[in-house]
Amino acid sequence: LTVEARRTREGVEVVVTDEGRGMAPRPDSPGMGLGLPLVATIASRFDVRTGARGGTQVTMLFVIA
After folding, report:
1. For the purposes of burial, counting CB atoms within 10 Å of the CB of 60, is it exposed (0-12), middle (13-18) or buried (19 or more)?
2. Which end of the chain has fewer CB atoms at under 10 Å, N or C?
3. CA 20 to CA 28: how far, in whole Å?
C-alpha cells in the first residue's frame, strides 16, 4: 500500500495505490460500503482506476479554501 500526498495549485492531491487483485463485485457484499462514496462526495476530484502494476489506484483532490 502506497499513500502519496502533495500540495498542488488547486489544493491537496492524495493518491492511494495497492497491488492487490483490484476491485470486483462480490456476491457476499451488500455494496460499496461507505468509504469510497463518502470520499467521492467531499473530494473536488475523485478517480479510481487499475494501477500500473495491477491493483487499484485512487486519486483524490481536496480544495483548500
Report:
1. buried
2. C
3. 19
Q: Which three cell numbers stand for residue 30?
A: 451488500
pTM of the predicted protein model: 0.82
Written as nine digits, the cell of 27 is: 456476491
Radius of gyration in angstroms for the set of CA atoms belonging to the chain, rounded to a whole number: 13
Q: Which three cell numbers stand for residue 25?
A: 463485485
Q: Which three cell numbers stand for residue 19?
A: 497491488
Instruction: Residue 56: name the closest of 16, 28, 29 by CA.
Output: 16
DSSP state for residue 53 in the 8-state scheme:
T
